[in-house]
Amino acid sequence: MSSRRAARYAGDVDDWVEDCEKYGLDACIDQWVDETAQAACDYSYKHVNGSLVLDGDVLPMEYYESRIEPTKESLAKGGIRLTWLLNHLFANQEGTTKPVPVDCSEADKKCSNAWAS
After folding, report:
1. Residue ranges covered by each domain of the chain
2. pLDDT digits (tens, 9 = 90+) for 59-88
């Protein structure tokens, strides 16, 4: 991926979690739900010309093409917000993976002997 494409949303990251940092988890989740519902109304349930999508409608390629960028942005937001949420939920947790002080020299010898056979 080119650095230009990778940096497409770099300037938006702080905005995507700003309310979370200011107002806490409940307000944050409320905002995410509202944004998702609005995106569904704006993109999923309307044809390109603004008319409502009805059951059985055949969606033209233009419908899909016009939704690609909003979908990419939504996925990027989701990744950033999931990261924020996990960091928030596990902020006071200690890591679960720690190196165990074990002398592996005997196992290493057995392994090298097995390969020598």
Report:
1. 17-92
2. 999 999 999 999 999 999 999 999 999 999
